[in-house]
Amino acid sequence: MTDTPPPMGRKSHGRLSISANRQPRSLMDEPPRIKGAWTAKIVTLFPDAFPGTLGLSLLGKARELGLWALETIDLRPFGIGKHHNVDDTPAGGGAGMVLRADVVGAALAQARIGTPQDRALWPVVYLSPRGAPLTQAMAQRFAQAEGMTLLCGRFEGVDERVLEQFGIEEVSIGDFVLTGGEVAAQVLIDATVRLIPGVLGNADSAVEESHSNGLLEHPQYTKPAEWEGRAIPEVLMSGHHGKIEKWRHEMSQALTRARRPDLWAQYLQKQGKTDAGEA
Ligand code: SAH
User: Fold this and answer.
1) Residue spans of beta strands (DSSP E) within the chain
2) ∠ CA 184-259-237 to the nearest 5 degrees?
3) Nearest ligand 1 atom to alpha carbon 180
4) 80 in Cβ contact with 103 (< 8 Å)
5) CA nearest 38: which of 168, 189, 177?
6) CA distance 188 to 169
7) What share of the chain is helix, strand, coil (3-state, %, to 5)?
8) What is the Cα–Cα distance from 121 to 143, expressed in whole angstroms?
């Protein structure tokens, strides 16, 4: 029998590197990674949920190119006893189960290996409905780090002590309750990775879109020029860039004012104006 060489680009060589993982057999399925590429380490009971939507389209392609990387750390092998139990009943009684401090702690300790201790360089986040609401500014902060660790909860959540012990930041993706943190982690990673230079084909699209300047985006149109009796606004067909810019900015402002009074108020404050328009 002859040894078949590994598929191109899947081996650790040159500027590509692969870091240690509890499940070496999965290394062969993992894309290569550029040394120092932004990395998400995800502690989860459901590693199969990843990459999920993060494996598609631009983000998936960028990951295949090694521009960012994803590592899952399965909570189950850290479980206690023959059945690898990861959860138990809440102290003080009540419904549901809570992820154990010792189990989650061991998984987080594993995730910490080889990562900077400075939270600015390597944020550690627990996805949680109690957390600070995820914003574009937060995604920008995460994108500037070297990578981050994300803890996905299940059941009633995780033992509070582990959050304190590891200096974990709680982040929410909105005022509703999900069954688990996996979908929320994908939301956070999507919002973050698309801000990493080189990931989006067109860098300008991340500069001009909703929330990047405190305003919602203007309406977009494409072909056909007329559809179901509806024409594209004339100014967009004029070829006059100045007028187009002005129209888009006005539409952005009108939309933000109508739909998101909270963002509009912040925007005006930044411009040093009140809603009456005085400077
Ligand atoms: N008992 C908890 C909710 C647990 S929901 C509470 O009332 O606060 C189970 C898990 O889903 C959580 O541990 C968290 O990881 C995830 N989750 C649920 N809603 C979320 C949200 N809005 N944002 C981020 N993560 C969420």
Assistant:
1) 38-44, 68-74, 87-88, 98-99, 124-133, 147-152, 169-172, 226-227, 230-231
2) 105
3) 11
4) yes
5) 189
6) 13
7) 35, 20, 45
8) 10
CA atoms of 177 and 53, how far apart (whole Å): 20
Record the tokens describing residue 6, joined without a space: 């590994």
User: Hey, which of 130, 159, 178 would you mutate to test ligand 1's pocket, going by the most ligand atoms within 8 Å of its Cβ?
Assistant: 178
Residue 152 has pLDDT above 90, yes or no: yes
pLDDT, one tens digit per residue, over 243-255 is 999 999 999 999 9
| Per-residue model confidence as pLDDT tens digits over 84-131 | 999 999 999 999 999 999 999 999 999 999 999 999 999 999 999 999
Give the rounded distance of the alpha carbon of 93 from its chain centre: 34
Q: Kindly report the protein residue whose alpha carbon is nearest to atom 12 of ligand 1.
A: 153
Nearest CA to ligand 1 atom 21: 129
Assigned token pair, 60? 């998936």
119/76 Cα distance (integer angstroms)? 26
pTM over cut 0.70: yes
Mean of pLDDT values over 58-69: 96
The ligand 1 site (C-beta within 6 Å) comprises 127-130, 152-154, 156-157, 172-174, 176-178, 180-181, 184
β-bridge mates for residue 148, sequence order? 40
Residue 142 and residue 148: Cα distance in Å, rounded?
A: 7
Distance 180 CA to ligand 1 centre (A): 6
